[in-house]
Automatic annotation (TrEMBL):
The keyword Transmembrane applies. This is Helix-hairpin-helix motif-containing protein. It comes from the Bacteria. The keyword Transmembrane helix applies. It comes from Olleya namhaensis. Keywords: Membrane, Transmembrane, Transmembrane helix. InterPro entries: Endo/Exo/Phosphatase_dom_1, RuvA_2-like.
Length: 295
């Protein structure tokens, strides 16, 4: 009897081994070639992706429109009359606003974008944003050709009341007889007088661009106001916010502060106390006083 070798398999065993090897090979092929390609395959969502992208773009567009609507609107304005609140909304710093107000308190005027930057020292980016909205008076933006100058004599002898002319009826030629007033200034005085329907007080000459206190005094020495414009004065201690804002140089913020200060003081005892109100245009107190009475 021969001993059977350990490496001899029956036909059934050989078939089983062949089947096992075949399965292993098939698994190797599946894991190395088939499975990776399945994992890298993504469903076809092109049509749905296009719809989603379109919806997202529409939402972004609506958001942009809403953001633009909520931005504060800037309208043309004269930079000489920027208040604390106005300057803050424009993006100016406290120091920049203070420089502007200090310059204006000297009765000086800003007549160009370059001068505004020199006075306030605002950044170039902010200047580029707000300067397109600057609105200067016509005689600044469209100056008239200088007229030919001529020499004339002025009398230093004080005039009596009867010798003085009525400022509200004086002609440009009569105004030019005053030292310091030429054709340009006389035209501005007449134009302003027509605009306000006659002067009420010599204080209003401060509103005529370019007139210095010395020239205004020269006008007072040669003219009187015989027919002052009638002004209905407003009761300071009773006026509402809506009434106060009708006065030149008083906006809603200042009117609100006036009423608050009036409440704290239990009524103003003097119109000059308005200079203590937060944000009040102190340099315009004399003009504002023309429209107020104390009661």
């Amino acid at each position: 009897m021969f001993n059977q070798s350990h490496f001899m398999f029956s036909k059934k065993q050989r078939s089983g081994i062949f089947l096992l090897v075949s399965i292993i090979l098939m698994l190797l092929v599946f894991f190395h070639f088939v499975l990776p390609s399945l994992l890298n395959t993504t469903p076809d969502f092109d049509s749905k992706d296009a719809e989603v992208d379109a919806f997202i773009k529409q939402v972004d567009s609506l958001k942009a429109i809403e953001i633009e609507k909520r931005k504060p609107k800037i309208y043309p304005f004269n930079p000489n009359f920027i208040t604390d609140h106005k300057g803050y909304t424009l993006g100016m710093t406290t120091q920049e606003i203070d420089r502007l107000l200090a310059f204006r308190n000297q009765d000086k005027w800003i007549n160009s974008v370059g001068q505004f930057k020199a006075v306030t020292m605002v950044s170039d980016s902010l200047l580029a944003k707000i300067s397109p909205y600057f609105k200067f008076p016509d005689w600044v933006t469209n100056p008239k050709p200088k007229q030919k100058t001529f020499s004339k004599t002025f009398s230093n002898t004080p005039k009596t009341i009867s010798q003085k002319l009525d400022l509200n009826s004086a002609t440009a030629a009569q105004l030019q007889k005053v030292y310091g007033i030429g054709p340009s200034y006389s035209e501005r005085i007449v134009k302003f007088r027509t605009k306000v329907n006659g002067f009420h007080s010599f204080v209003e000459l401060q509103e005529v661009y370019g007139l210095t206190p010395e020239v205004i005094q020269n006008v007072k020495d040669n003219f009187v106001i015989k027919s002052p414009r009638v002004i209905t004065k407003m009761a300071l201690n009773k006026a509402t916010k809506e009434q106060l804002v009708t006065i030149k140089y008083i906006d809603y913020e200042v009117a609100h502060n006036i009423i608050e200060e009036r409440t704290l003081r239990d009524g103003f005892k003097s119109i000059d106390e308005l200079t203590k109100v937060n944000g009040f245009p102190v340099n315009k107190i004399q003009i504002i006083k023309l429209s107020l009475r104390l009661d």
